[in-house]
Amino acid sequence: VLVSVICSSPQNYPLYIRSIPTENELKFHYTVHTSLDVVDEKISAMGKALVDQRELYLGLLYPTEDYKVYGYVTNSKVKFVMVVDSSNTALRDNEIRSMFRKLHNSYTDIMCNPFYNPGDRIHSRAFDNMVNSMMVQVC
Fold it and tell me: How far apart are CA 72 and CA 49, in angstroms?
């Protein structure tokens, strides 16, 4: 089972990448950048409606033969992308949505840390533990 979680800055450079198994991290850089383009398209298509609805979950960005790519964007335009193995049929939309909420809450905790400089790569043990527990739950 393949799971990958990516956190990207508003300027679309990666702040955090985690994959299970770990040897696939580099493989997903291309997938992440193409999915960030899809996220930007969805945001611009929604325009003001996105801000009015406060709907941060973008849903399924695109499926491929091997995996499904889901997206989420915060109010500050930080993007979360999750890549899940297509063979995992146990994951429903509401479970993906709740995992993105957990990611967003943990990211908010990092931003509240006075020693974290916004825009730096995320090096937080608490964030790592949360992502790892979420990935183990999915696998």
Answer: 15
Which whole-number Å values give the CA distances from 128 to 47, 90, 125, 133, in the listed order? 32, 24, 5, 9
Distance CA 78, CA 15 (A): 9
2-137 is a CATH 3.40.50.2000 domain: no
Length reported for the chain:
139
Return the pLDDT at 129: 92
Selected residue with higher pLDDT from 103 and 33 = 103
Tell me the whole-structure pTM to 2 decimals: 0.85
- SS3 state at 17: strand
Distance of CA 101 to the CA centre of its chain: 10
> Which of 11, 10, 134 lies closest to 82, judged by CA?
134
Q: Mean pLDDT across the chain, nearest whole number?
A: 83
Q: Is the peptide bond before 21 cis (omega within 30 degrees of 0)?
A: yes
Check pLDDT > 70 for residue 25.
no
Nearest-CA neighbor of 40 among 84, 15, 73, 85? 73
Q: How far is residue 8's CA from residue 34's CA, in Å, rounded to a whole number?
A: 12
- Greater pLDDT, 13 or 26: 13
